[in-house]
Amino acid sequence: MYGPYINEELVGKALKPFKSEVKIATQFGFGYNVGKAVTFSMESVPLIKHFETYLPFEESEILLIESRISSRKLKRREHLIITGDICRHYTFVVKGVLRMYGIDPNGREHNILFAGENDWIADITSFHDAKPGESNIQAIEPSEIVQIAQQDLYHLYLNIPKLDRIFKVITEEKYVELQNRVFQNISSTAQQRYTYFQEKYPHLASRLPNTQIASYLGITPEFLSIIRKEMVKGRSKK
Predict the structure, then answer these.
(1) Rounded to two decimals, what is the model's pTM?
(2) 3-class SS at 109?
(3) What is the C-alpha separation between 49 and 68, in angstroms, rounded?
(4) Are strands 120-121 and 89-95 parallel, antiparallel or unpaired?
(5) Residue 89: what are its φ and ψ, rounded to 5°?
(6) 74, 102, 113, 120: which one has the fewest Cβ atoms less than 10 Å from its Cβ?
(7) What is the pLDDT of residues 169-205, one digit of tens each?
């Protein structure tokens, strides 16, 4: 899910009920705990900092979140889920890059989205319906992740109402991302889709193999190389 790609207008509307609580978290601590000697697990720090880009949290809320999350490491090419699995977690990327992809009847893989640091990934349909999904989620490079299981997420919603609001914003932002991607595939040229990819994933463009980018764009790696050469030529003429 979105992580750094935040629609400020949408966030403002969704979090309006908590406007009086909004406070900027600093590098010295979280929310209301700035200046206090409070110890939190290292695994939760990136996740809490991410949440506090939306709203600050009390110490008791942070401790509750910590009690309901789990962390793990993934090897390169290791899968979180494959087609037919039920997605039981929302996954937050602390380090590394994950991809979601589908497989067509001919066995070809098609990348749907990527998730780098401070971003979320999940088969949302499978997660909410608790039914086997069609998506695959795989680590492109060695990765560190934090996960929240469905029952733990719902427990946090009940006990930390602001977190429910935050996840609604995150989910809506992800929907916007996927909708934009559909429109890109329908109405844009391959070069326009590549430009959009560079704008959408500026921190990943240089880290992903050409095969993965080409799969996301719906073209061959060879055609991607041609597009890049044409773009370089176009810039050199200016």
Answers:
(1) 0.81
(2) strand
(3) 16
(4) antiparallel
(5) -140, 150
(6) 102
(7) 999 988 898 898 888 889 999 999 999 899 888 889 8
